[in-house]
Amino acid sequence: MMIRYLAICCLSMLLVGCTSYNYTVTDSTHPSQRVNKDTQTTLKIDPLIYGMLVKENRLVLTVKNTLSDPVELLGTKSTVVDQKGQSHPLRSQTIAPNAFIKLILPPLRPRFETAPSGGFMFGMQARRDSSALPDTAASVPDPITTHSAEPIYLDYFSDTDPYYWDFDGEGEIRLLLTYQKADGTVWTDQFTIYRQKA
Q: What's this model's pTM, rounded to 2 decimal places?
């Protein structure tokens, strides 16, 4: 019965997760750039170089600083507007000289690792570790010490946390990135990003 249930769950996940997406990125000064999972697309907007790649249906955006001084991404002055029109903040980051930062759109939600404990649980899988079994058949093994379990990762997020959002299906988002040089100069790069089925 359990094997049949697991087979149905796996088949459902495969059918739901089969859709793959590509992205098209445009800004005000360059023609549209098609981004997919096969090759990295590069876009140079002085003094930064943007690298774009699709990974697990998310747009991975690297921002490289070509200057000899650090550049700061001002998170409080930057935003991403999701396909529903909601504005989300970004976190501030310093980009060291000749180094890069990475932005993942939509952002990955935090996960925490938990170990199994006693009681009834749903969605956990334990694996028996035969090396922990006692040598004598007469003794009764303690179920806690005779089993080891793989770590379990759970997504944790709050609907009130504006940093995290979802990109469901096809649609368009807007990205506004504001930077500051060491001399105090501030500028903004703006992108329109469209996601479509591959």
A: 0.68
